[in-house]
């Protein structure tokens, strides 16, 4: 059986040790690797947009995580985030793109140390990250989904269903979906954790669990690997806890203070949302209308 390692939703939701504190302090000379960098941010709106137009090239920090961004077998930059970013930067007068692949955990430090100009990785936007990164508005809204046995014999469509039926649930190590389940009455000690969705599908097929919870987009990507005909995905949904929708979204990250570039980027992004172009670009990567969003970075930075 072919196994494929997938990086899942928790990487987009979770915070990296030290990154939140680094951004919140706004400290000068914070340590990133072995070098000293200034993360206090540009002043006067920044001048990066003008510089990029002169150079004609923008460096994009990416983490290999389909369908958001990755380098394919031909060595080409691909994914929803690069496709959208390329379109916008071309309209801002920047025609060349240089991908800089790093581990997800290195994205924010790499931005601070000027290894690249923008994070293009579908990174989740939240309050702690907003202290370290200037985010665009989100270009997608995350949804959860369940992997279940073919036909969904237990009729599982929500975390409340799992709690009510006392079904055996699986999820990834540290996934936010665990908190959503617990918030709906599922006992944390009854939730099994696995390394990725592939391992979750194998557990389903072996009868060790009744349902595996994760983000819908990574579920879609996992099912593309094939080899699991007895497993299907439920419809994507927005999880609720205590009756409150838990909405999340991902966007593009700029260095603090570079508001001129961020605002110009946002302006083009909003045009694409209104015209439907954003969905047309994102659709080949598994994004559908239900992943489009009216959320703003300002809203998500309060979470």
- Following the backbone from N to C, one meets helices and strands in this order, namely HHEEHEEEHEHEHEEEHEHEHEHEEEEHHH
**Low confidence ranges:** 1-12, 14-36
Principal-axes geometry comes out as elongated
Distance from N terminus to C terminus (CA atoms, Å) equals: 41 Å
CATH hierarchy, class of the largest domain: Alpha Beta
Kindly state the percentage of residues in helix.
Answer: 25-40%
Largest sheet: 6 strands, mixed
CATH topology of the largest domain: D-Maltodextrin-Binding Protein, domain 2
Q: Determine the number of helices (DSSP H or I, runs of at least 4 residues).
A: 13
| Average pLDDT level | 88
Query: How many distinct domains?
Result: 2
* CATH 2nd-level architecture of the largest domain: 3-Layer(aba) Sandwich
- Spell out the CATH superfamily of the largest domain: Periplasmic binding protein-like II
Strand content: 15-25%
Quaternary structure state of the chains depicted: single chain
Radius of gyration, rounded?
20 Å
What structural class is derived from the secondary structure elements? alpha/beta
Count of individual beta strands: 17
Protein name: Ectoine/hydroxyectoine ABC transporter substrate-binding protein EhuB
Keywords: Signal
Domain Solute-binding protein family 3/N-terminal: 57-289
Signal peptide: 1-29
Give a summary of the structure in a few sentences.
The chain is an alpha/beta fold. It has helices spanning 10-13, 19-25, 48-55, 80-91, 107-112, 127-130, 159-165, 176-183, 197-205, 216-223, 259-275, 277-282, 297-300; strands at 30-32, 35-37, 57-62, 70-71, 77-78, 96-101, 118-124, 134-135, 140-142, 144-149, 169-172, 191-194, 211-215, 231-233, 240-241, 244-245, 248-254.
């Amino acid at each position: 059986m072919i196994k494929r390692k997938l990086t899942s939703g928790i990487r987009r939701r979770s915070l990296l040790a030290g990154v939140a504190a680094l951004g919140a302090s706004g400290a000068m000379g914070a340590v990133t690797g072995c070098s000293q960098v200034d993360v206090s941010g540009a002043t006067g709106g920044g001048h990066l947009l003008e510089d990029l137009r002169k150079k004609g090239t923008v460096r994009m920090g990416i983490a290999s995580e389909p369908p958001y961004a990755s380098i394919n077998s031909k060595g080409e930059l691909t994914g929803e985030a690069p496709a959208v970013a390329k379109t916008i930067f071309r309209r801002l007068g920047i025609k060349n793109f240089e991908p800089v692949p790093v581990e997800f955990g290195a994205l924010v430090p790499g931005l601070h140390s000027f290894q690249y100009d923008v994070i293009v990785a579908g990174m989740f936007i939240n309050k702690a990250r907003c202290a370290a990164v200037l985010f665009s508005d989100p270009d997608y809204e995350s949804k959860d989904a369940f992997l279940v046995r073919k036909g969904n014999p237990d009729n599982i469509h929500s975390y409340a269903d799992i709690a009510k039926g006392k079904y055996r649930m699986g999820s990834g190590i540290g996934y936010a979906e665990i908190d959503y389940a617990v918030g709906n009455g599922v006992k944390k000690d009854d939730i099994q954790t696995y390394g990725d969705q592939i391992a979750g599908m194998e557990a389903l097929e072996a009868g060790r669990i009744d349902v595996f919870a994760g983000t819908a987009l990574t579920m879609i990507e996992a099912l593309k690997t094939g080899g699991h005909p007895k497993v299907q995905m439920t419809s994507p949904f927005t999880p609720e806890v205590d009756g409150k929708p838990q909405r999340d979204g991902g966007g593009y990250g700029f260095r603090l203070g570079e508001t001129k570039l961020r605002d110009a980027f946002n302006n083009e992004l909003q045009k694409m949302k209104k015209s439907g172009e954003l969905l047309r670009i994102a659709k080949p990567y598994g994004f559908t209308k239900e992943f489009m969003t009216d959320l703003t970075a300002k809203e998500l930075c309060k979470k």
